[in-house]
């Protein structure tokens, strides 16, 4: 087993997750089987109870694990299925050590950070690294370990020490350290001192970086590469320049030559037996990836989607939704124009306190090609989301509600079509007697962590759903498997009334007791899903409900359905942006803005 450690210095949020994912992707192009582990030094057991504004999106896995958003990057880039054990936190490790101490596993010894906590970390990594992550059931060849936070933080000290020991435990030929640093530009000059200091700190802790990935605004000058090489005790070929690009999908190509050359040499990859099928699959995947990303850059005709959310101040709160929209826009041959609207700005009270924000928000909603209301918790901004759903329904604007977005669409329909005055959710107004959305009876109300309806679950299309556009996009499948994360559901008492008035529950759970999908028949695309389809979206396999929204917003949905084409890419060599360019009469500025993101 080979291990690649990706750590970061100077500042947090420098893009370690994208670089770790890109490293894994490049190794997969060689036919290797790759897995990933994310280390988060916080004391939380998992990310489930953390606010999206605190640490970005909570990503949910098939097994119900609530984990860091970087595991979403790993799954999207590597096309693997991870488990909750692929996310290690200080809280998990300490809980495990304390559990062993209570059982007497340490035979009366004084339990200490070294060796007991550090040993637990190393054993955890070795155990999880060997778990198969794809349908082949084969053990991975390489494990990418990303160390969250910034080296030098007190929270990560135990993990850094564990990795220092780990490099000797597995042997030099099986361990590579990539350190991600920042090269800022001051008065037009690329400065290397922050990187020099970061490498000095890392080396003082016993880890010698093999590769230095330098995040920079523009490509590094040769003199700067030579200076970093000289003062950081690495060769110039070990300095990777990762400059700002228009899309994170270009990062693997930035790293390709230097990174793969070094890994081939250090890991002696030519000695690892790789089946011809894996090699061919890797080559096909890499060619498809490059075709897709190059085609994306040539797209000019736009599709404008407005995201009406509660956590728009931190875009990483919706990173999987953003990526899923990008995947679908590429499949439609359109450039995504994503506009952000804070839900509370759509509420009537905002017109009195901040009319400028109110009218700007409504201008974006009214001029959008499509509207998406994502998941969330709490009552803030709910009336604004309800207003957005009403606009979409009444004005035939394509709409997709995800989780909370489904619930607000049901509340809106109950109020304005079914005549249920003051219809609401038990989450927002517990004392009301008009709950069209209720707490699920099996959920523990007194404990928040890990108690929601979580993970991969089936949704069954109902017999009255043959007309459903979403079902047709699913090739008329009888069921779909999607990941869930919610505590509330549609109140079964109102289902009959809602359906009589035209809001059809085309998908339900396996017992037909829980409402999973809503859809309006006489609408270009008005869909709500209780699950989170964004978690399973991949660049070459877009999420079906989100693709439906983008296609309908671009005016392509009916044509796509009638053609019988699958949503998944079958041959990206036919991806051609020229047609989109030819149809566009407006010039669109292409920026070189950095899009490498992380919230460590």
TrEMBL record:
UniProt keywords, alphabetically: ATP-binding, Glutamine amidotransferase, Ligase, Nucleotide-binding, Pyrimidine biosynthesis
Give the source species. Schizosaccharomyces osmophilus
- Read off the CDD domains from this record: CTPS_N (cd03113), GATase1_CTP_Synthase (cd01746)
Q: Which residue numbers delimit the CTP synthase N-terminal domain? A: 2-262
Named in its record, the pathway it takes part in is: Pyrimidine metabolism; CTP biosynthesis via de novo pathway; CTP from UDP: step 2/2
Q: Identify the enzyme class.
A: ligase
| Superkingdom classification of source | Eukaryota
Task: Outline what the protein does.
Answer: Catalyzes the ATP-dependent amination of UTP to CTP with either L-glutamine or ammonia as the source of nitrogen.
Name one cellular component (GO) term: cytoophidium
The answer to whether keyword Nucleotide-binding applies is yes
Instruction: Tell me what this protein is called.
Output: CTP synthase
């Amino acid at each position: 087993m080979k291990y690649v450690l990706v750590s970061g210095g100077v500042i947090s949020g420098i893009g370690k997750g994208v670089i770790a994912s890109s490293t894994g992707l490049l190794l997969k192009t060689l036919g290797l089987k790759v897995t990933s582990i994310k280390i988060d030094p916080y004391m939380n057991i998992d990310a489930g109870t953390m606010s999206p504004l605190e640490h970005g999106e909570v990503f949910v896995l098939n097994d119900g694990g609530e984990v860091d958003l970087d595991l979403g990057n790993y799954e999207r880039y590597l096309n693997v299925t991870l488990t909750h054990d692929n996310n290690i936190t200080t809280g998990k490790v300490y809980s495990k050590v304390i559990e062993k101490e209570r059982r007497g596993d340490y035979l009366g010894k004084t339990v200490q950070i070294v060796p007991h906590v550090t040993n637990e970390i190393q054993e955890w990594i070795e155990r999880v690294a060997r778990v198969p992550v794809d349908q082949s059931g084969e053990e991975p060849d390489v494990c990418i370990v990303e160390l969250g936070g910034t080296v030098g933080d007190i929270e990560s000290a135990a993990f850094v020490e564990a990795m220092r020991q780990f490099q000797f435990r597995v042997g030099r030929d099986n361990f590579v350290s990539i350190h991600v640093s920042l090269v800022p530009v001051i008065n037009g000059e690329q400065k290397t001192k922050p990187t020099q200091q970061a490498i000095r700190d890392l080396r003082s802790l016993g880890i010698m970086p093999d590769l230095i990935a330098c995040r920079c605004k523009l490509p590094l000058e040769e003199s700067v590469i030579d200076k970093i090489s000289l003062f950081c005790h690495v060769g110039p070929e070990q300095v990777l320049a990762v400059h700002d690009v228009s899309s994170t999908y270009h990062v693997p190509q930035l790293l390709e030559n230097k990174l793969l050359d070094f890994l081939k040499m250090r890991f002696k990859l030519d000695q690892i037996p790789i089946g011809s099928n894996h090699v061919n699959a890797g080559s096909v995947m890499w060619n498809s990836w490059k075709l897709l990303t190059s085609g994306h850059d040539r797209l000019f005709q736009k599709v404008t989607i407005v995201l009406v959310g509660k956590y728009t101040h931190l875009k990483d709160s919706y990173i999987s939704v953003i990526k899923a929209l990008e995947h679908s826009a590429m499949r439609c041959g359109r450039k995504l124009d994503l506009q952000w609207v804070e839900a509370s700005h759509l509420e009537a009270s905002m017109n009195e306190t901040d009319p400028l924000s109110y009218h700007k928000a409504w201008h974006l909603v009214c001029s959008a090609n499509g509207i998406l209301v994502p998941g969330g918790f709490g009552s803030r901004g709910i009336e604004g989301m309800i207003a957005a759903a009403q606009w979409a329904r009444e004005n035939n604007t394509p709409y997709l509600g995800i989780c909370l977005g489904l619930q607000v669409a049901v509340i809106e329909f109950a109020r304005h079509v079914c005549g249920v005055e003051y219809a609401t959710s038990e989450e927002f107004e517990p004392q009301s007697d008009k709950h069209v959305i209720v707490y699920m009876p099996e959920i523990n109300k007194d404990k928040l962590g890990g108690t929601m309806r979580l993970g991969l679950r089936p949704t069954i299309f109902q017999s009255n759903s043959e007309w459903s556009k979403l079902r047709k996009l699913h090739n008329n499948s009888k069921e779909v498997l999607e990941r869930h994360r919610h505590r509330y559901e549609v109140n079964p008492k109102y289902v009959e009334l809602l359906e009589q008035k035209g809001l059809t529950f085309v998908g339900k759970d396996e017992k037909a007791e829980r409402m999973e999908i809503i859809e309006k028949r006489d609408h270009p695309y008005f869909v709500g899903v209780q699950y989170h389809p964004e978690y399973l979206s991949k660049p070459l396999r877009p999420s079906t409900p989100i693709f439906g929204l983008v296609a309908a917003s671009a005016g392509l949905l009916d044509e796509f359905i009638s053609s019988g084409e699958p949503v998944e890419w079958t041959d990206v060599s036919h991806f051609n942006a020229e047609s989109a360019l030819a149809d566009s009469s407006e010039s669109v500025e292409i920026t070189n803005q950095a899009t490498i993101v992380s919230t460590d």
